[in-house]
Amino acid sequence: MLKLRPMQPDAKSICNGEKVLIIASDPVFGESVQKKLAGIGYEAIYAKDGTEGLKAIFDTLPHLILLDIELAGIDGYTILEKKHAEPLLSKIPVFLMSTQGVPINMRRVPEGSVKEFVVSLHADPSDVADRVNKHFGCVPALPKNELSQDAKKILWVEDDKLIGNILGKKMVSSGFDLVHAKDGEEAMKSLEQFMPDAIMIDLLLPGMSGFDILKQIRDNPKFKDVPVMILSNLSKPSDLNRAKVLGAQKFLVKATASLDQIVSEVRDLARK
Question: Of the four, 22, 33, 60, 246, which is 20 to 30 A from 130 by CA?
Answer without folding.
Answer: 60
